[in-house]
Design a protein that fits this description.
8 helices; 10 strands; TIM Barrel; about 250 residues; binds 1,3,4-trihydroxy-5-OXO-cyclohexanecarboxylic acid
C-alpha cells in the first residue's frame, strides 16, 4: 500500500480522500465557493485557475491564494491550470502556461501543483524540480475527453509521469461504453500495482461515476467531488456529502 503525506493529510487508496475544486471567475464567486467549502468540508481543495476570465499576474495569484489559504487551512491546496484541450476554460500559449507554473511552483501557500504531461518535457522537468525545491508536490495529469485510450498507452503515460518525478500520477478519461469503464478500472489497478507512486484515476461522465467511489479497489487516492449539483469541475462528479457517505461503506 503506497501513501503520500501532504501536510497532515495522508493520501492512500485504503481510504481515498475527497477534493473539491474552486471554479470561481471573480472574487465574489470565490467568497461564495469558500463558504460552501466550509460547509461541505472536503479533505483537499483544488483551485482551478483557468476559471478566471484572464490569465492572472503574480499579484492576482497572490491575492487569491491568500484568500483561499485563510479559509481552507489546514486542508492542502492543489493549484491547477488547464487549457481547453484538457477540459479547461482558458486558452494559453506554452509560454503563458509555463510562466504561470513558474510563479506557482515557488509559492508556499500551494501544497500540490498540477502539471499536464503532454507539455514540453524539458520545461515540465524544470517545473517539477523547482516545485520540489520549494516543498511542493507534483500531480502529473493526463486527460482524454474523447475516449479511454488503450491500456498500454495509459500505463505508458503513467510510467512517464513517474520517470519525470511526479509524486502522484493522474489519468482522467471519457468512457463510451460499460466495457470501457471496466477496462479502465482494471488498468488503474494494474498501474497501482506497477508504479511506485500513488495514482489518481477517474472515468468522467455518468458512465464513469463508479470509478469516483472505487479508489479502494482501483488504487486511486483522491476523488474529485462537486460542491453541489451545479458547481463542479468535470462531468460526472458526485457531490462531496454523497461521496463522503458512500466512501464510508468501503473504508477499512
Ligand atoms: O484532473 C482532475 C480531475 C477532474 O477532471 C475530474 O474528472 O474530476 C476534475 C479536475 O478539476 C481535476 O483537476
Amino acid at each position: 500500500m503506497k501513501s503520500l503525506q501532504v501536510n497532515n493529510l495522508t493520501l492512500s487508496s485504503s481510504a481515498p480522500k475527497i477534493a473539491v475544486s474552486i471554479v470561481a471567475k471573480d472574487l465574489k464567486s470565490l467568497t461564495q465557493q469558500l463558504q460552501q467549502i466550509s460547509v461541505v468540508k472536503p479533505d483537499l481543495v483544488e483551485w482551478r485557475i483557468d476559471s478566471l476570465t484572464q490569465m492572472p499576474d503574480q499579484d492576482t495569484v497572490q491575492t487569491w491564494l491568500k484568500k483561499i489559504h485563510e479559509q481552507i487551512t489546514p486542508m492542502p491546496l492543489i493549484a491547477t491550470f488547464r487549457t481547453p484541450g484538457d477540459g479547461g476554460n482558458m486558452r494559453a500559449s506554452e509560454d503563458q502556461y509555463f510562466k504561470l507554473l513558474r510563479i506557482l511552483s515557488v509559492n508556499p501557500l500551494i501544497n500540490i501543483l498540477d502539471v499536464e504531461l503532454h507539455h514540453d518535457q524539458k520545461r515540465v522537468s524544470s517545473i517539477v524540480k523547482r516545485a520540489h525545491q520549494h516543498g511542493i508536490k507534483i500531480i502529473m495529469s493526463n486527460h482524454d475527453f474523447k475516449k479511454v485510450p488503450a491500456n498500454l498507452a495509459i500505463l505508458d503515460r503513467m510510467h512517464r509521469m513517474q520517470k519525470l518525478y511526479a509524486d502522484i500520477a493522474k489519468v482522467a478519461v471519457m468512457p463510451q461504453s460499460k466495457t470501457d469503464v471496466m477496462r479502465f478500472m482494471q488498468t488503474s489497478l494494474k498501474a497501482d500495482q506497477c508504479l511506485d507512486i500513488p495514482i489518481v484515476t477517474m472515468a468522467m461522465g455518468d458512465l464513469g461515476k463508479l470509478t469516483r467511489i472505487a479508489g479502494s479497489l482501483t488504487g486511486s487516492v483522491i476523488t474529485f467531488g462537486s460542491m453541489n449539483t451545479h458547481i463542479g469541475s468535470a462531468p460526472g462528479q458526485i457531490s462531496v456529502p454523497t461521496l463522503r457517505k458512500v466512501l464510508k461503506l468501503f473504508s477499512k
